[in-house]
UniProtKB/TrEMBL annotation:
It holds the Pfam family Clat_adaptor_s. This is AP complex subunit sigma. One of its GO terms (biological process) is intracellular protein transport. Belongs to the adaptor complexes small subunit family. It is found in: Endomembrane system. InterPro entries: AP_complex_ssu, AP_mu_sigma_su, Clathrin_sm-chain_CS, Longin-like_dom_sf. Keywords: Membrane, Protein transport, Transport. The lineage of its organism: Eukaryota, Fungi, Fungi incertae sedis, Mucoromycota, Mucoromycotina. It comes from Mucor lusitanicus CBS 277.49. It comes from the Eukaryota. GO terms for cellular component: endomembrane system; membrane coat. Residues 1-131 form the AP complex mu/sigma subunit domain.
């Protein structure tokens, strides 16, 4: 089960945070900073135990999961999230900052209550495009 999903930049600034088991974490900003530091400053032979992450350009996509979860499936989920975000946005960090609600919607289409529910990119983005069309073509 996924415990949290973070997107941070190289300066350890959180760009996206979603918690699926928030009762375990008291001080979220401090927790996010510590997780980001663990991933950014790790040595080659170190691996943070319950964390799975990938680096894309200047962003770290970090997922905290249970130790018994398949790390390769979590890596595939991260890759899928990045591809969905790339299809919907331009490839800049500012798109994530200024359209945070859309990032939340895309991730929420894929992960619900810590469980992966959708991996098909077309289905994930279909709801976003339908919402965009609804705003441009109001029903009278």
């Amino acid at each position: 089960m996924i415990r949290f999903f973070l997107i941070v930049n190289r300066s350890c600034q959180t760009r996206f945070a979603r918690y699926y088991q928030s009762t375990l974490i008291q001080d979220k900003p401090t927790f996010e900073l510590e997780v980001a530091r663990q991933c950014i400053t790790r040595k080659q032979n170190q691996s943070p135990a319950p964390l799975v992450y990938r680096v894309y350009a200047s962003l770290y996509f970090i997922i905290g999961c249970d130790p018994e979860d398949n790390e390769f499936s979590i890596l595939e989920l991260i890759q899928n999230c990045v591809e969905c975000l790339d299809h919907y946005f331009e490839k800049t960090e500012l798109d994530l900052v200024f359209n945070l609600e859309k990032v939340h919607m895309i991730i929420d289409e894929m992960i619900v209550q810590g469980l992966i529910v959708e991996t098909n990119q077309e289905r994930v983005l279909a709801s976003m495009y339908a919402l965009a069309n609804q705003k441009t073509n109001p029903v009278t």
